[in-house]
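Write out this protein's structure.
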Amino acid sequence: MTTKDQAGTKTVDEVSSKMEELLATNQSYNIPKVGDLIEGTVISVSKSEVHLDIEGLGTGVIRGGELIDESGDYSDLDNGNKVQATVIELENENRQMELSFRSAGHQKAWDELEQLVKEKKIIEAKVTDANKGGLMVRVKRIEGFLPVSQLTTEHYPRVEGGDKNQILEILSKFINQKFKVRLIDVNESENKLIVSEKAAFEEEQKKVLENYKINTVVEGKISGVVDFGAFIEFGEGLEGLIHISELAWQRIDNPKDIVKVGQEVKAEIINIDDGRVSLSIKKLKEDPWKKAIEKYDIGQTVKGTVLKINPFGAFIELDKDIHGLAHISELAHHKINDPSEIVKVGSDYKFKILSIEPNSHRLGLSMKALSKKPETKEVKVEAKVEVVPAEEVKGEDIKKEPAKPAE
């Protein structure tokens, strides 16, 4: 804090004298209570104390830790400045009112944060620290948190396998940097402040996106590739998402098999929602399934490569664009527990086409349909009766019938 003398500013002694005069004349004033917020005029400033003229009530003093102000409004005071402070003691050892900037500033700072949430304003937040879940930031002298999920793609830590130590290493590089953020959750009672860089970015995009419409084709550069798709930068600092299902017509397991970071691509805008842009690359290409019925027929025998095996069957590549499914029940005539018992990934096999559904992008295949079902032979079981010669039967085992009485 700085001290600047101004002509006409009252001194502490003058204010004290005035208070004694008022008391002597028995004039009554509304006496504040502890916890009340009052207004005063700065009459002296030093590094350790600030004295205020509380009009009609005398002198107030702010000192020590009570000089800390979270709102930042009273960090550079001059004599004559009008300020607000909270009453923490009606009279101290010097018969002065004990006041606090910290309490008043704390409340004011949180009130301002609440207002920023309502107004959806974009502000700057300085990164002070990092942990595996995100970044610690400071907003108006209040500590807040920026979760990893709320970072833009520019700062999002893309780490293979999600190694937390690598994520922390990347996030730590942002310490002392300033990010544009929007406040998304403020709770003074829980001392919780959550901010979002992504929300701020989307807010800024809204105005620029007014020049774009659905079905507009844009040219841009792939800025990031993740499990669920790829991000593309286009226009004036805009960014959108190409979902994995919109990268190509065929089935895709890994977007990195289709696009790479830095690659120049064309995409069509398919949706704009609250600053978020969704795009498609495959829409700019003809749907190969429309010609599938011209190229393939039900009952046709085709050769295909096993791309992937699931518990319910195997995905088969017939050509670059058309993939089919051979259900586990169509791989063999006998019951199997796993498709890998019959087919292997990367190997070629012959299949018979069972069904084609171009609109649903489905094609059913069968391996067992190309072979005859093994015949099951009936096994006749004949009952054998073993005849035991009488001479081999022991006497005691023969039950003789009682002799009939003579007539």
